[in-house]
């Protein structure tokens, strides 16, 4: 039975960099994790079933269909973890026009039952800087206050995830010029 | 199938003003919401069953009876939403002498399954000012710190509501002299 | 049917002092609570079943076994509360190397169904001071920031506990030189 570690963080916090760094370091110790992006996994399921042709169509699916796909994805990932350690790359919550949408609602948690949820965080000013400097992806601009609010909400909902599953919640800080420390903290969780 | 939008906020934040403003504006667009006060709905159920004569008696009901009434109210409101959009006016949590009481415990959420929970918020100093200046209703005085604590708790428990139901959580700020903006934000959620 | 009051607080906040003070005062009024330490209760169950000889072995038990023991402890405490008021001394969350571990996960809450969860809190600086001055037990040192983070997480997860059980969440502040006030607040919850 492998470990199931969920890694989350607001856009621009550097989540992928920290995951990649940690997996590289662990590979040197012979510890292997299979990285799974929750959204991509769900999309592949939907595509195989002929429900969508591209990712944009995912958002237009009926709410009940989305729910069924989320549950199927969670169940599929849990099955993979029977033989392997998995890192699940997803969001604690997603900021939408109608508010914060939970990344791991009850029906996902019930199937997935993660061991750990990691929140990669840093100061809102650093995140804002990174978002403004990053031109590779289009992102809506929001002020530092709104990023702080999002990170606070992510902590609160992660606490609810822990109540429901018994998993631990680990906060890993990814500060400017201190990536090594963030990677080290992540390695400690995964090892 | 109509939308189910729960609107919450601490006493004095101006929740009712924001709801009324948003419903007026939407009526002009032909979008109709039925406003339902959760507490009143529950009281009417209890009165019809001959359990109480006035609202004061509601608090003295046995805990299990209250629970049954809450569940019945949630189920009744969900039934109404089959044909109509509903705004449910209630509290994220209520401050009592023995602590914060959840407005939407598990058995209410399971029946109601809201689409959105709105938290109407503003700075604690503004709320305190409004409470002190409002003589139309008796309110217990509490300092700004205690209001900040209550609003923070309301966010945290709203996150738990989102985990359990998959609903979004939208924070609408209702600042002094900026009511139009709060109404506009609420309209965006309801439209 | 007795009351079930869960009392929590980070190490060094003075939880035990507040509990003892409150129970003494209530004894004078003829109100009796049975104090139960959740961890000790669980350990006694495990020892009776011959699963462990000392408390250190508890941590090395299989995750599923721990879960079963937690559930059995919660169920046993709920049974005691049939005839007596109980104070359950435990943690909202425990800080571990892999993150915050919930003290009352879903399977514990479902059996225990507490009436109130008390969070004994104070400023992080005071807690740090108390930890540094207390040489009777070995504690890992952490800065004030990390204590503030832990207390914030404890509030968030207590909100999730309230959502799931309908219990209230009471924050009791135990400030330096103001123990009497903390005891009085606790007495108000227990009376």
Describe this structure in words.
In chain A, the strands form two sheets. In chain A, strands 2-3-1-6-7 form a five-stranded parallel sheet, with helices on both faces. In chain A, strands 4-5 form a two-stranded antiparallel ribbon. The two termini of chain A are 15 Å apart. Chain A is globular. Residues 136-140 of chain A have low confidence and may be disordered. With 191 residues, chain A is an alpha/beta fold. Chain A has a single domain, classed as 3-Layer(aba) Sandwich (Rossmann fold), CATH 3.40.50. In chain A, a hairpin with a 2-residue loop joins strand 4 (93-96) and strand 5 (99-102). Helix content of chain A is 51%, strand content 18%. The longest helix of chain A is centred in the C-terminal third of the chain and has 22 residues, at 144-165. Chains in contact: A-B, A-C, B-C.
Low-confidence regions of chain A: 136-140
In N-to-C order, the SSE pattern of chain A is: EHEHHHEEEHEHHEH
Q: Structural class, from secondary structure content of chain A?
A: alpha/beta
Based on CA atoms alone, the radius of gyration of chain A comes out at 16 Å
Ends apart, CA distance between termini of chain A = 15 Å
Give me the CATH architecture of chain A, please.
3-Layer(aba) Sandwich
> CATH H level of chain A: which superfamily?
P-loop containing nucleotide triphosphate hydrolases
Most extensive interface: A-B, 24 and 19 residues
The CATH class of chain A: Alpha Beta
Count every helix of chain A, treating DSSP H or I runs of 4 or more residues as helices: 8
